[in-house]
Amino acid sequence: MPCALCLKPIDKLNDSREHVIPNAIGGRLKVSGVLCSSCNSEAGRQWDSELAAQLNPFSLLISIVRDRGETPAQVLTTVSGNRYIYRADRTLAQAQPEFRATPLDDGSIKISLSARSIEEARAILKRAKKKYPGIDVESALALVTPDNSYLNEFVDIPSEFGGPLAGRSLVKTALCFAVWKGVSPLDCSAARRYLTDDQGEPCFGYFYARDLILVRPPGLPLHCVAVSNRGTSGQLLGYVEYFGIRRQVVCLSESYAGPDLHFSYAVDPTTGEEISLDFEIEFSRQEIASIYDYQHVEPQSVKSVFEPVIERALKLSEEGERDRVVQQAIEFGWRNCGTADGEAVTPAHIQNMSALVVEKLQPYLVHLAQRRRQTEKEQMLSPHPAVGTSPNFDSLGGLKDGNE
Question: Is the separation of the CB atoms in 314 and 395 below 8 Å?
Answer without folding.
Answer: yes
